[in-house]
């Protein structure tokens, strides 16, 4: 070996005996491998003779795990320039049934034999399985796994003397026997089934979980590889194939406590029914389980069923995950059939000089009003981001409804006891006319081998840049033909008024909310739209744009409970300790150049999702606006502040905006805050809060040298009034009497007096002219005084303590229907 190193120019240095620190890098990796291998062996209770398989599997797993040393990439990704696939990975040491080729000629013999999963062979796409009966290792592709069962698990067994190969120790050193059928990873090779054995016509094959017995069970104990010959002979006489019954004994339970630093990462999902009545048979290791903060006891049984349905169904994220489920495979087939029936494309050869865009599948579970699953929807979406501007598309803009309009419309409907319905347009974008020549690759999962043709799109498809605009124009023309007029305040709102009849339709792409006081006209609108398009009537509004709508005799509540729980799950903070407030008082966040950087993509995802959450959670508005200032270069203090917001949401996931049925719509005041000093680089934060709409607008950057009174004057003018006047305009179109001026509460007397008497003097000459726009004389607003402690808009402009935060949220009218009692 020394000569070999010399020939290759390698300098050989040896370490002193028992001095591992001289080769620290290698020794640390050895420790990493051995600790992982020991964990695998102890978990499966394997004998020591399998130590080599444990080490090989440990290396296989480590090579596919991200490491901070290589910037959170995996060694596999560094070498092969692609992310590793985890679909085929199974629990090491678990029970595995593999196809046996020794039963050819006898159709009534078992097709599979029990074994123990021992890892992944190198250079072969299969699994290493230890054959319990023949005591040899084979490699097979056709394997069914029972990942919660371990054949070598015995009570009080330390794996020291239990050697399954004592009958023939030399066999383990022999060659590995490979299955003759070696192929790609198929659908069967990666499946893990717990409800059936490998022999399909066997009536005795029940769930292996039911065969497992604990230490106190009276059932007989059967060692791995032992078969009851009498039972087998009896089954053979009956013409039924049987398999060795393997009894699994669990290890004696011990009380374990996790390190304190892991408390935030233990998870216990809230029960889908009233947790107060649900049996709490198992103790949870989660210090702060979600069930302490989410309750369902205040809801009817039908609404509980609806909430349980939207919680329990998991929507696939990608095609490879969906193709394993027959429901989603059928949904994709139906989508393709609908597209072909509608004449969406024709298959043609790709012309020279043209490029074909790609597509992807998006999966969504649709629910009935009672919570039952209506259908599993698979939608084919074109990857429009690969289109070329000026060639594949031109104009793309299409308006969608503002969340302000949604809240305002629902508030008016609740006050006047109007009906609120929801419609869904099937394959909406396919109704749009497509004028450009666009080619698309055949959808994933439906391309035939060797077929090089592509789809020439004849109609718009989801994902195309111009698809939403084409659909919007088509649907707008249809509503106008039915007698609806387009709102000038929000172009996605359409209103039909005739005598005492009033019906309004609010569209968001293919989701339509219809409200009104005329059930006959509402039903007629549904029927007319169904004739022009394929309309699905979803009944009363329950779930819209990720917002849960709960209507009671007292009013209506909008909350985003499921959306919050999804954020917590994605961030791994389901078990975190809740915070009583979203942001610390007087917290000063700056660029923090000296602080360590964090994953910018992760930070932006959190902030982006929190921005949408403001639709029903005005209490996090200020916090989110502060966090938004650092999305370009986030540091650790910024991520910690974002996590505090998530911990605050953990404590009140069911809180939302409440619209009371007895409150008068036109008299609900607008509240404004003037001149709030906030610790941001821009100097001042401006806010507006309406009891119908909740918004926060950052003010123009101003020098702190400006005198306070002119700054207050500037705040009350151009930034507050347009929003207030726009809300009044929208309410007028919704047939609300706006004869009275809107009260504008201000906690600064000087600013209120300047608004009532807009004159120039020495202290206001340096303020811009547009700041003096104040429609007081036109009786559209009425500035009123309010104490600073009662100023609700403080929620939007500064961090508050726990007591003040709760007090102002109560005045604003929020309500938590999921609060445990």
From TrEMBL:
SUPFAM superfamilies: DNA/RNA polymerases (SSF56672), Ribonuclease H-like (SSF53098). Residues 1-83 form the Integrase catalytic domain. GO terms for biological process: DNA integration. GO terms for molecular function: nucleic acid binding. Pfam families: RVT_2, SH3_retrovirus. Residues 185-205, 227-241 have a biased composition (Polar residues). Residues 153-261 are annotated as: Disordered. CDD domains: RNase_HI_RT_Ty1. Gene3D superfamilies: Ribonuclease H-like superfamily/Ribonuclease H. This is Integrase catalytic domain-containing protein. It comes from Centaurea solstitialis. The lineage of its organism: Eukaryota, Viridiplantae, Streptophyta, Embryophyta, Tracheophyta.
């Amino acid at each position: 070996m020394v000569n070999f190193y010399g020939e290759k120019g390698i300098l050989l240095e040896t370490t002193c005996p028992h001095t591992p620190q001289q080769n620290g890098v290698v020794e640390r990796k050895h420790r990493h491998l051995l600790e992982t291998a020991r964990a695998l062996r102890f978990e499966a209770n394997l004998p020591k003779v399998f130590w080599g398989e444990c080490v090989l599997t440990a290396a296989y797993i480590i090579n596919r795990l991200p490491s901070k040393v290589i910037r959170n990439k995996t060694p596999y990704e560094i070498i092969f320039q692609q992310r590793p696939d985890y679909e085929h990975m199974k629990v090491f040491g678990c029970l595995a049934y593999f196809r046996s080729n020794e039963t050819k000629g006898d159709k009534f013999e078992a097709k599979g034999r029990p074994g123990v999963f021992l890892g992944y062979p190198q250079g072969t796409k299969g699994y290493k399985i230890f054959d319990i009966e023949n005591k040899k290792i084979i490699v097979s592709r056709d394997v069914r796994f029972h990942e919660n069962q371990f054949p070598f698990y015995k009570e009080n067994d330390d794996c020291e003397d239990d050697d399954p190969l004592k009958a023939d120790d030399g066999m383990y050193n022999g060659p590995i026997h490979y299955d003759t059928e070696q192929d790609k990873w198929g659908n069967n090779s990666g499946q893990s089934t717990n409800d059936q054995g490998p022999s399909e016509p066997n009536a005795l094959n029940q769930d292996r979980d039911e065969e497992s017995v604990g230490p106190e069970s009276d059932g007989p104990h059967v060692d791995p590889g032992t078969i009851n010959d009498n039972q087998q002979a009896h089954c053979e006489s009956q013409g039924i194939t049987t398999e060795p019954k393997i009894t699994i004994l669990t290890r004696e339970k011990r009380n374990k406590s996790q390190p304190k630093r892991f408390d935030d990462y233990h998870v216990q999902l809230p029960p889908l029914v009233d947790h107060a009545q649900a049996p709490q048979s198992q103790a949870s290791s989660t210090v702060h389980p979600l069930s302490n903060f989410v309750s369902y006891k205040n809801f009817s049984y039908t609404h509980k069923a609806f909430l349980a349905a939207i919680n329990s169904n998991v929507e696939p994220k990608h095609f490879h995950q969906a193709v394993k489920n027959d429901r989603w495979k059928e949904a994709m087939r139906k989508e393709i059939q609908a597209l072909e029936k509608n004449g969406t494309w024709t298959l043609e050869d790709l012309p020279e000089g043209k490029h074909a865009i790609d597509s992807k599948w998006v999966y969504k579970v649709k629910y009935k009003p009672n919570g039952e699953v209506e259908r599993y929807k698979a939608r084919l979406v074109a990857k429009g981001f690969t289109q070329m501007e000026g060639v594949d598309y031109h104009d793309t803009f299409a308006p969608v409804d503002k969340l302000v309009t949604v809240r305002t419309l629902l508030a008016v409907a609740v006050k006047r006891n109007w009906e609120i319905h929801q419609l869904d347009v099937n394959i909406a974008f396919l109704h749009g006319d497509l004028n450009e020549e666009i080619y698309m690759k055949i959808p994933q999962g439906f391309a035939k081998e060797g077929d090089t043709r592509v789809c020439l799109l004849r109609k718009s498809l989801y994902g195309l840049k111009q698809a939403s605009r084409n659909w919007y124009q088509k649907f707008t023309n249809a509503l106008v033909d039915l007698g609806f007029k387009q709102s000038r305040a929000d172009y996605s709102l359409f209103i039909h008024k005739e005598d005492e009849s009033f019906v309004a339709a609010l569209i968001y792409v293919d989701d339509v909310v219809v409200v009104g006081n005329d059930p006959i006209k509402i039903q007629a609108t549904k029927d007319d739209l169904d004739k022009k398009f394929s309309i699905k009537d979803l009944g009363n509004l329950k779930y819209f744009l990720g917002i849960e709508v709960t209507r009671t005799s007292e009013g209506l509540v909008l909350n985003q409970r499921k959306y919050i729980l999804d954020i917590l799950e994605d961030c791994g903070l389901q078990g975190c300790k809740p915070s009583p407030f979203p942001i610390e008082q007087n917290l000063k966040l700056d660029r923090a150049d000296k602080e360590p950087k964090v994953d910018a993509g992760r930070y932006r995802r959190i902030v982006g999702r929190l921005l949408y959450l403001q639709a029903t959670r005005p209490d996090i508005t200020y916090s989110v606006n502060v966090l938004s200032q650092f999305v370009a270069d986030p540091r650790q203090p910024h991520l910690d502040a974002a996590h505090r917001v998530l911990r605050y949401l953990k404590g009140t996931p069911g809180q939302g905006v409440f619209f009371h049925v007895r409150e008068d719509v036109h008299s609900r005041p607008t509240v404004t805050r003037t001149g709030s000093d906030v610790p941001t680089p821009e100097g001042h934060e401006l806010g507006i809060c309406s009891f119908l709409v909740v918004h926060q607008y950052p003010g123009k950057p101003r020098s702190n040298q400006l005198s306070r009174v002119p700054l207050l004057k500037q705040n009350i003018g151009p930034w507050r009034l347009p929003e207030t006047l726009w809300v009044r305009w929208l309410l007028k179109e919704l047939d609300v009497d706006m004869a009275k001026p809107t009260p504008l509460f201000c906690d600064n007397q000087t600013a209120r007096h300047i608004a009532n008497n807009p004159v120039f003097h020495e202290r206001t000459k340096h303020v811009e002219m547009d700041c003096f726009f104040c429609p007081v004389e036109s009786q559209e607003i009425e500035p009123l005084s309010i104490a600073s402690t009662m100023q609700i808009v403080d929620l939007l402009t500064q961090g508050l303590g726990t007591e003040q935060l709760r007090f102002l949220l109560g005045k604003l009218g929020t309500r938590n229907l999921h609060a445990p009692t």
